[in-house]
Write a structure and sequence with these properties.
The protein is of the alpha+beta class and 102 residues long. The chain has a domain at 9-32 and 62-94. It contains two helices and six strands, in the order E-H-E-E-E-E-H-E. The chain has helices spanning 16-25, 65-79, and strands at 4-12, 32-37, 45-47, 50-52, 55-64, 88-94. A hairpin with a 2-residue loop joins strand 3 and strand 4 (50-52). The longest helix is centred in the last third of the chain and has 15 residues, at 65-79. The chain starts with a strand and ends in an 8-residue tail after the last strand.
Amino acid sequence: MNKVELILTICNRGFADAIMETAKQNGARGGTILHARGSAMGEVSKFFGITILPEKDILMIVTKAETKVAIMKGIVEAHGVKTPAHGLCLSIPVEDAIGFNF
C-alpha cells in the first residue's frame, strides 16, 4: 500500500464546505467534517488581536502522501489564519488503512 497521511483542518464553524471544495481542487477525493467546540473562555476570546470563536469544524482528509502538500497549501492559502475561516492545518502519518480506494 502507498504511504497514507491524515490531514486535519480546524476552522471556524461554517467554512468546512468551502475548505473541502478547495481540498478537492488540489487533489483530495473527499473527507469527513466534524462539528466541535473550542476551549476558549467565554463566547469570544482574543489572542494576539485575533478573534477566536468557540464553534469549530474539523475536516479529516485521508490522502496519499504525495498529494498531501498540495492539498495543505491550497487550504492554507485560501482559508488560513488571516481569513475569516481562521483555518489551521496539520498532517499525521497513517500507519495502517483499510477500505480506502486511492
